[in-house]
Amino acid sequence: MTQRILFVDDEPKVLSALRRMLSGGQDDWSLSFAGGADEALAMMRESDFDVVVTDVNMPAKDGLTLIAEMRANAKTADVPVVVLTGRDDLDLKRRALESGAIDLLGKPVDPQDLVARLRSVIRLKRLQDELKGYNALLEERVAERTAELANSRIEVLWRLGRAGEYRDEQTGKHVVRVGSYCRLMGEALVLDGDLIETLFLASPLHDIGKIGIPDDVLLKPGPLSDEEWQVMKRHCAIGAEILTEHPGALEAYCGRAGGGSRDDGNAILKTAALIALTHHEKWDGTGYPAGLAGERIPLISRIVAVADTFDALCSKRPYKRALPEAEAAEIVRGERDRQFDPEVCRAFETVFDGLRAVRSSLPDPGVMVANGRAPE
Q1: How many other C-beta atoms are found inside a 10 Å radius of the C-beta of residue 177?
Q2: DSSP letter at 367?
Q3: pLDDT reading at 372 higher than 70
Q4: Rounded CA separation 50/44 (Å)
Q5: How large is the average pLDDT for residues 140-151?
Q6: Are 214 and 168 in contact (CB under 8 A)?
Q7: The domain at 166-361 falls in which architecture?
Q8: Average of per-residue pLDDT across 76-84
Q9: What residue spans define the domains of the chain?
Q10: How far apart are CA 131 and CA 68, in angstroms?
Q11: Nearest CA to 15 among 53, 42, 64?
Q12: CA distances from 353 to 10, 323, 348 (A)
């Protein structure tokens, strides 16, 4: 590969001498010449150079200024610079090295010394370029691996969400739809982007606690007795316990408005645990497990409550028929200010066409498993 070298000097005789000095030598070197710092900088904007050899004492901009401007530009920051100086000035040489020069040569230049120094600098530049290429490749592979790990985590979370539904809803589409609904409503509510993404990933775990409900209650086809209903309601606390090592911190939430878990653990799992615990609370305070009302219910859980209810109403279960989307939406509207936050209901109306599009793209294939029952 041809190596491009730029020589910078305000004295034409010096540039002519350098041209003659190197004319018969390196077939793989392409030589360019500039009569000053500004001309050199203009040439570097137009072309790439592997090495710059510059004089120090030049009018307008000296060699140290040239180096400083090169280092300030991302395109030329890593180009090695060799400084030529005819002055026996140790302080100047020190400043040249401190400014970023990689080597120094005194005038008059010995041809063999110049060629040897340039070969050394070119080898160093080649190694630097190879290292940069390797680092770029490494960064690309790390980014790919990070994306793979992120996708794996999402898949694990959603498969865990499906596990919570599996005993009474085998397709798993319900939890995917709920997550998608929550993202649409979060966007309509103009929530922070990171919170929307966390809600999207965490909301499918809202009913993970159903894993801990006995079959004779969860799969009962008929109405539940009062005792069975108390067992069924335990799925909220069970879900929180599954998703956090400190369920007491989430229980403590119920005693402070606007609070939340202080645990510094995984944000998605903390959010999922809070949703699992509180997604059956109702705006008017008649929900469970803590009877929270209004804005004491976490906003994320108020969003999940609407998303979960709408999708459940539209889905067929052994103990009920699937309602048309319009009829299900009317039921949601009827629960505004009672079961549901009115602001979340407004967001639901805003994105209703988007919710229908989600249902159309993620339909349930066929009939659900017999004798299934979802918490009311």
Answers
A1: 24
A2: P
A3: no
A4: 10
A5: 73
A6: no
A7: Orthogonal Bundle (1.10)
A8: 91
A9: 3-136, 166-361
A10: 24
A11: 53
A12: 71, 17, 9
Whole-angstrom distance, CA of residue 185 vs CA of residue 214: 33
The mean per-residue pLDDT over the stretch 317-331 comes to 85
Distance CA 91, CA 365 (A): 81
Residue where the block lists tokens 């407004």: 346
Distances (CA, A) of 238 to 244, 252, 273, 294: 10, 15, 10, 23
Q: Which residues on neighbouring strands pair with residue 122, listed in sequence order?
A: none
Question: Could you tell me where the beta strands, DSSP code E, fall in the chain?
Answer: 3-8, 29-34, 51-55, 81-85, 103-106
Per the model's pLDDT, the better-predicted residue between 120 and 264 turns out to be 120
Statement: the pTM of the whole predicted model exceeds 0.85:
no
> What is the rounded average pLDDT of the residues 223-244?
91
Query: Are the C-beta atoms of residues 368 and 169 closer than 8 Å to each other?
Result: yes
Interval 286-299 mean pLDDT: 96
Q: CB neighbours (10 Å) of residue 161?
A: 25
Query: Residue 49 has what pLDDT?
Result: 93
Q: Nearest Cα to 171, choosing from 152, 190, 185, 158?
A: 158
* CATH homologous superfamily, domain 3-136: Response regulator (3.40.50.2300)
